[in-house]
Design brief:
Blueprint (H helix, E strand, L loop, with lengths): L2 H36 L5 H12 L14 H48 L5 E4 L3 H12 L4 E5 L2 H10 L5 E3 L5 H6 L7 E4 L4 H14 L4 E6 L5 H7 L3 E4 H14 L1 H12 L5 E6 L7 E2 L10 E7 L4 E3 L6 E2 L4 E6 L1 H13 L3
Parallel strand pairs: 1-2, 1-4, 2-3, 4-5, 5-6
Antiparallel strand pairs: 7-12, 8-11, 9-10, 9-12
Helix pairs in contact: 1-2, 1-3, 9-10
Length: about 350
């Protein structure tokens, strides 16, 4: 939540409120005063009109004759002075509102860009449509840092309203300057999930040029573009129509498995099947003595460079570079990563 922006908006609202209240007060006092000065010859409407043209400095001829009336002339000077001061304050408030809105936007964007430059091992989500929003939601749920990029600023702003801490960049993700601003050099992965296959292809190609080690997952509509995306550098290509069809079949022939997975994703514990890389600092040791089962994570398999070992035996040797496949909560994944890094298992 932008606390400074809220305070500024509140202050400007009260400025408008007091300006309007002051204007109404001057109109009331001026009307009452001019009615007394003019006497029965003039109506309250004449007195109100006289006050209005005086306060707004329109400069019509005097409705109420003030010749040879020193009190009326002094009263007019007071009303005019107060009205000019109030109108000046009102217009300065309007100007401040416009300038501060632009300034707040600029400052917020610069703070966001500064934060993005400090990110390491983050993800870049290119596209904030239906698929992009779901990708961002999953990254947020599993406590992974990411930057959203899209050409549609309204999509990004609406997404930020729901997730106030969202980091985003407005621009074309296939533009190399935008990916550089998203700190592509330090990114762990890029999601090319726009609705345009050709743009997703260019995103993958550009990302690999600046960071050959970054993992790129691309969304694809047309099966004819799969090989093109792969040649452009995409590490994984997701055909939504294919995966959707598989999901429908699974819902029919293995409903309890699908029900379990859906409940796992919706549960308060946010259980996921995650993979955790064993770091290079880890000393090779057998699996048996290690505490790879807790209330927050359960080891399912070990992925070696050549194979996947499901339910590995106790004498299986864990080595740096292997990946642990575990069912875990986001907190459990962080605990497991920290324990492997510091050798405390």
């Amino acid at each position: 939540m932008d606390i400074f922006g809220e305070r500024s908006n509140r202050r400007i609202f009260f400025s408008f409120f007091w300006s309007l209240l002051g204007f109404l007060a001057i109109l009331f006092l001026g009307t009452y005063g001019y009615k007394i000065i003019g006497g029965d010859r003039y109506s309250y409407l004449d007195a109100l009109f006289m006050t209005f043209v005086t306060v707004t400095t329109i400069g019509y001829e005097e409705v109420i004759d003030l010749h040879n009336n020193p009190a009326g002339q002094v009263f007019t000077m007071v009303i005019a002075f107060a009205g000019i001061g109030l109108m000046t304050y009102f217009f300065s408030t309007v100007t401040a509102f416009v300038l501060e809105s632009d300034l707040n936007t600029t400052l917020r964007r610069r703070r966001m860009e500064k934060t993005i430059r400090k990110l390491r091992n983050h993800y870049i989500v290119c596209g904030s449509g239906r698929v992009g929003r779901n990708v961002a939601a999953e990254l947020g749920a599993t406590k992974r840092q990411f930057v959203a990029v899209d050409e549609n600023l309204e999509n990004l702003e609406s997404q930020r309203e729901r997730k106030p801490g969202l980091l985003y960049l407005h621009g074309d993700a296939s533009d190399e300057d935008v990916l550089i601003a998203a700190n592509i050099a330090e990114a762990r992965g890029v999601f090319a999930v726009t609705g345009d296959d050709s743009k997703n292809l260019m995103i993958g190609l550009t990302a690999k040029q600046f960071n050959p080690s970054v993992r790129v997952v691309s969304r694809c509509h047309d099966t004819r573009n799969v090989e093109k995306m792969r040649k452009a550098g995409a590490d994984e290509i997701v055909l939504l129509d294919f995966t959707g069809g598989m999901r429908i079949v699974s819902a029919m022939i293995r409903p309890h498995v699908i029900s379990f997975l859906d409940e796992m994703l919706r549960s308060e514990n946010q259980l996921r099947v995650e993979e955790v890389l064993i770091p290079s600092e880890f000393k090779a040791r057998p699996l048996g003595p290690l505490l790879l089962r807790s209330g927050d994570y359960v080891l399912l398999a070990v992925r070696t460079p050549g194979d996947s070992i499901f339910n590995p035996p106790r004498d299986f040797m864990l080595e740096p570079g292997y990946r642990l496949i575990a069912m875990t909560t986001p907190q459990g994944r962080l605990q497991l990563e920290a324990a492997l890094l510091h050798g405390t298992l």
